[in-house]
Amino acid sequence: MRFINKFGKTTVASTILAASVLGTTQLSLASSPGEGNQGQQGQDGDYMAIGNTENPKNVIFMVGDGMGPSYNSAYRYYADDPNTKELDQTAFDKYLKGTNRTNPNDPKENVTDSAAGGTAFATGHKTYNGAISVDNNKKPLKSVLEQAKENGKSTGLVTTAEVTDATPAVYAAHVDDRDKKDEIAQQFYNDKINGQHKVDVILGGGSKYFGKENGNLKEKFQQDGYDYVTNKTDLANSQSNQVLGLFSEKNMPLQLDAPKKNPLLVDMENSALSKLEKNDKGFFLMVEGASIDKAGHPNDITGVMSEMGGFEKAFQNAIDYTDTHKDTLVVATADHSTGGLSIAKGKDYVWNPEAIHKMKHTGSYMTEQIADGKDPEKVISKGYGIKFPSEQLDKVKEAAKELKDIKSKAKSEDDPKIAEATTKLQDAIQKPINDESHTGWTTYGHTGEDVNTYAHGPGEDKFLGNKDNTDSAKNIFDFFTNDVSINQN
After folding, report:
1. Is 437 among the catalytic positions?
2. Cys staple from 203: which of 119, 179, 268, 341, with CB 3.0 to 4.6 Å?
3. Structure confidence at residue 482 (pLDDT)
């Protein structure tokens, strides 16, 4: 059961993410301390961004969950314009600063999970796998978000996973086990700093942890002045500076498969920025492309590339924000890599992203559809954009029947045999696209290589070179300690 709990492979539904487009929010220009959002007008009538450009007033910390170096390289091939001779750069490449070491402080495992990895870059301390901002003695560790709130800044958490999932949780909760999601949600509401809720903007999935079965937390947030929204239209119309947005019961669907009512990651990011920037003292915002990892675990290359595209859009949007907000630092990194993604496999020196571009749905989506009883042949026909061999379709049908039989005999959905049969079905569905694209995988879990770090804005040079993942938090703590804006109101 440990593998199932850690990596969320019990059900296929947990491997999906979000899509659809929300109108871009108009964002005000940067302000110096005490000037609100007015900025300074230049002679030509345009506004110039001003503020403290040595230590950032605002920090946007972005996490591509599971985004190891091979993911960034594969996405460069995937996003490349085939009509140009050179391999085009992605939005990330220009801002590469260095790499992060990701090892945890775990007595049994030396490859991290998202909880230990997140705790490291949220608090500056190593811990064991499964820990949510507690040390090896299960004592709470202060996060950079909590420090920001102590400084009077506004705070936000944006993710495509459940908002109670490991990476967002490490910023605003302290529990000894990442699976205690009801408790994490309760801490989001109950724990306060200076009489205020820790997080002003909470956007993602996981509505099941905020409903009647866990104390009607969404209603309590509303009573305290938060807008509660469940779709992109309501998010766009939200007027309060504090908002709880829960767009799915569990994880948000993968971008390629999601309903149009769902906001994209960049939409949630824009909404958060439009609210958080109203605070003269600045803000801390964490933005997680969580479903890169959700697609990596089941070796879903279509889902991975879709989610990398969504994360790149959010990253570029954050970079664009710094053009008119010079006192804002953007950092993007990963907590670990997932799946052992290989760009090419077998004897040929070829990786074929064009095949992936032709796909109409992710492997995760097709697996869920078939697992729910849909006709395999129809699902494959609607989801695949390349030829699906008839002999492989027979294997999909066989795996679907096996899963159905196991489900009928299982005493609960947590039966590990269901997870094994689901994985077998998904592998059968995805084999043609992995073969056609020449994509290789080594594991359904995490791998331990260093991950890339990208940064832009005041303090970006602090991220140069090969660093420990704890250094990200240590740098941000230093920035907030030296932030002149907190003492000038």
Report:
1. no
2. 268
3. 85
